[in-house]
Amino acid sequence: MAPVCGTTTCDLRTKTCCLPNDDGGPGAAYCLSGNSVSCGANIATFHCGGVDDCPSGDVCCGDYDLKALTAETVCQKPSCALAQFCRTSAECPSGVQCLAQSCALGANVHLCGLKSGPPYNCVAQ
């Protein structure tokens, strides 16, 4: 099932969801064609939300570049430096739960394990 991005569904296997208020500013999320485009600085770029959006063997990892002011999710081999995005606990490393979290700047996401430290600064929902 494709997630809602703004007011429309956005199949992240073939599209990208952009969240302009990543920096706390105004703007509704919107969906772009293509799953490798960048939404730009101060706009969160979602290429995936869990393993179902990724090629077989890959997981959905979150990354944040403080210098470039970009936040994004990308599919990569099972080893995430900052956070693994998920839809179910079966996607997470053994013994780690997929948790709904409210994170910095009001982002509501599902991550493997609670990410209470920077840059996410999440609390469990």
Task: Provide keyphrases for this structure.
125 residues; three-stranded antiparallel beta sheet; globular
Nutshell version of this structure?
With 125 residues, this protein is mostly beta strands. The protein has one domain (4-124).
Description:
With 125 residues, the chain is mainly beta. The protein has one domain (4-124). Helix content is 0%, strand content 36%. It has no helices and 11 strands. The chain has strands at residues 4-5, 8-9, 15-19, 30-33, 44-46, 59-65, 70-76, 83-85, 98-102, 108-112, 123-124. It has a 6-stranded mixed beta sheet, with no helix packed on it. It has a 3-stranded antiparallel beta sheet with strand order 10-9-11, with no helix packed on it. A hairpin with a 2-residue loop joins strand 1 and strand 2. The two termini are 22 Å apart.
Produce the secondary structure layout.
Layout: E1 4-5, E2 8-9, E3 15-19, E4 30-33, E5 44-46, E6 59-65, E7 70-76, E8 83-85, E9 98-102, E10 108-112, E11 123-124
Parallel strand pairs: 5-7
Antiparallel strand pairs: 1-2, 3-4, 3-5, 6-7, 6-8, 9-10, 9-11
How many structural domains are formed by the residues?
1
Rg, Å, rounded: 13 Å
Low-confidence stretches: none
Query: How many DSSP H or I helices?
Result: 0
Strand order of the largest sheet: 4-3-5-7-6-8
Q: How many angstroms does the end-to-end distance come to? A: 22 Å
**Which whole number gives the mean pLDDT?**
86
What level of helicity do the residues show?
A: under 10%
Largest sheet features: 6 strands, mixed
Cα shape: globular
* Beta-strand share of residues: 35-45%
Number of strands: 11
The structural class is: mainly beta
Oligomer: single chain
**Helix and strand pattern:** EEEEEEEEEEE
